[in-house]
Amino acid sequence: MLNRAVIKVIEKREFLTSTPEKSVRAVAAHMKEMHLGAVLVVDQPGGKLVGICTERDLAFKVLAEGLDANTTTVGSVMTADPQAIGPDKLFGHALHLMFEGGFRHLPVLDPSGRPIGVISSRDALGLELADFGHELEQRETLTEIL
User: Fold this and answer.
1) According to the model, what pLDDT value does residue 123 have?
2) Is the pTM of this model over 0.85?
3) Residue at 81 is within a domain
4) CA angle at residue 55 from 50 to 58, to 5 degrees?
5) N or C: at which end does the chain have fewer Cβ atoms within 10 angstroms?
6) Is residue 40 packed enough to be buried (19+ CB in 10 Å), middle (13-18) or exposed (0-12)?
């Protein structure tokens, strides 16, 4: 899976976008509804990525600071100009960028800078589970042989 293109990891997966002027309460409600940990913030009318806002941003920059979720905009707490990756890059490269950068979500952009998805650190968990399942199968086969 590490050698798969990023597009294969994110295809058929929903992601959330917002404009910077939306309230963090509205964005958080959509994140909860869609079970997502990040929203990609885009400009109008072009739809190009200008930032990312994660559940950690909401917790640390809004809740911990005592800001009003109804009046605080997502643009004021987002990470502006986040690192991103193209859809043709390898999933392993995306994981490396996230590890080196210390972040858990990586926007995937088309050549014009518009978001087409998000790679999450949770995607790597799928790798570990697949490897674990394969290892269990091998152990069961060895047990049967012995």
Assistant:
1) 82
2) no
3) yes
4) 80
5) C
6) buried
Give how many domains the chain has, as a whole number: 1
**140 versus 78: which is more confidently predicted?**
78
Q: What is the pLDDT of residues 55-112, one digit of tens each?
A: 999 999 999 999 999 999 999 999 999 999 999 999 889 988 998 999 999 999 999 9
DSSP of the chain: -TTSBHHHHHTT----EE-TTSBHHHHHHHHHHHT-SEEEEE-TTT--EEEEEEHHHIIIIIITTT--TTT-BHHHHSEES---B-TTSBHHHHHHHHHHHT-SEEEEE-TTS-EEEEEEHHHHHHHHHHHHHHHHHHHHHHHHH-
Would 1 be classed as within a structural domain? no
CA–CA–CA angle 96, 81, 125 (5° rounding): 30
What is the domain-level CATH number for residue 77? 3.10.580.10
In a domain? residue 135 = yes
Other CB atoms within a 10 A radius of the CB of residue 85 amount to 19
